[in-house]
Design brief:
Shape of chain A: globular
Structural class of chain A: mainly beta
Radius of gyration of chain A: 13 Å
Largest sheet of chain B: 7 strands, mixed
Number of helices of chain B: 0
Number of strands of chain B: 11
Helix content of chain B: under 10%
Number of strands of chain A: 9
Largest sheet of chain A: 6 strands, mixed
Strand content of chain A: 35-45%
Oligomer: heterodimer
Distance between the termini of chain B: 39 Å
Helix content of chain A: under 10%
Radius of gyration of chain B: 14 Å
Shape of chain B: globular
Structural class of chain B: mainly beta
Distance between the termini of chain A: 36 Å
Strand content of chain B: over 45%
Order of helices and strands of chain B: EEEEEEEEEEE
Chain lengths: 109, 123
C-alpha cells in the first residue's frame, strides 16, 4: 500500500516560514491535499491539488509537489497556525483509495 | 448554511453494533460523494469508507471491510455508517466529510467536515 511520511513535529518562530514535508514514492505524479486540525476541532482543507487554496484560506498558505516530496509552506507564521497538519492522496492501487500522512504538529515558539 | 452533523456515537461492547448518521444541509446532497474518516484518541486521521453520490459505488478500508457498511438516503440528506463486530481498535472520533463532486468527477479530497461523533468500544 502507498505510504505518506511526515515529520512528527516542526517548530517555527512567529513571523518566520514553516515548511512541512510529505514524502511518498513518486508523489509528484499524484495530487496532494493538505488539512489543518486544531485541538478538539475537525480538520479543515487548506490546500488542494498540490497548490490551490480554498476560499477563506490566507495566501500565507502555499503548496508544492515534485519528485518524492510534497511541501506545505506557511509564510509569516502566526500563533493561530499552531495545529496538526495532514497530507492526503488518493491511491487506487490495491483498493487503498485514500491515504493520509501520519500528521505533523506545528509548534509556534 | 453548509454543514454536516454526525450523531449516533456512544459506548458499545466488543462484538456489538452501532449506526452512525450524518445529516447534511445547505447543498444538494445527492450531487456529492461522501466519506467517513476516523481518528483514534491521540492518533492521526484514518480513512474508513466512501460512497458515490447516487450510492451505487462504495469503497472501504481493509480494516473495516466486511464489518462496516456505508449507505445514504438522498431523500433525507443523510449519510450512514453501519458498524458491526466492533473491536477496541475501532474506538475513535468518526467524521463525515464531503467531496467537492461525485466520485467519478476525479476531485478526491474533502472540502467540508462535520464535528465528529465519538465511538468507544469497551467492556
Amino acid at each position: 500500500s502507498y505510504v505518506l511520511t511526515q515529520p512528527p513535529s516542526v517548530s517555527v518562530a512567529p513571523g518566520k516560514t514553516a515548511r512541512i514535508t510529505c514524502g511518498g514514492n513518486n508523489i509528484g505524479s499524484k495530487s496532494v491535499h493538505w488539512y489543518q486540525q486544531k485541538p478538539g476541532q475537525a480538520p479543515v482543507l487548506v490546500i488542494y491539488y498540490d497548490s490551490d487554496r480554498p476560499s477563506g484560506i490566507p495566501e500565507r498558505f502555499s503548496g508544492s509537489n515534485s519528485g518524492n516530496t510534497a511541501t506545505l509552506t506557511i509564510s509569516r507564521v502566526e500563533a493561530g497556525d499552531e495545529a496538526d497538519y495532514y497530507c492526503q492522496v488518493w491511491d487506487s492501487s490495491n483498493d487503498h483509495l485514500v491515504v493520509f500522512g501520519g500528521g505533523t504538529k506545528l509548534t509556534v515558539l | 448554511e453548509v454543514q454536516l452533523l454526525e450523531s449516533g456515537g456512544g459506548l458499545v461492547q466488543p462484538g456489538g453494533s452501532l449506526r452512525l448518521s450524518c445529516a447534511a444541509s445547505g447543498f444538494t446532497f445527492s450531487n456529492y460523494a461522501m466519506t467517513w474518516v476516523r481518528q483514534a484518541p491521540g492518533k492521526g486521521l484514518e480513512w474508513v469508507s466512501t460512497i458515490s453520490g447516487g450510492g451505487g459505488g462504495t469503497y472501504y478500508a481493509d480494516a473495516v471491510k466486511g464489518r462496516f457498511t456505508i449507505s445514504r438516503d438522498n431523500s433525507k440528506n443523510t449519510l450512514y455508517l453501519q458498524m458491526k463486530s466492533l473491536r477496541a481498535e475501532d474506538t475513535a472520533v468518526y467524521y463525515c466529510a464531503k467531496l467537492p463532486g461525485d466520485f467519478w468527477s476525479g476531485s478526491r479530497y474533502f472540502d467540508l467536515w462535520g464535528r465528529g461523533t465519538l465511538v468507544t468500544v469497551s467492556s
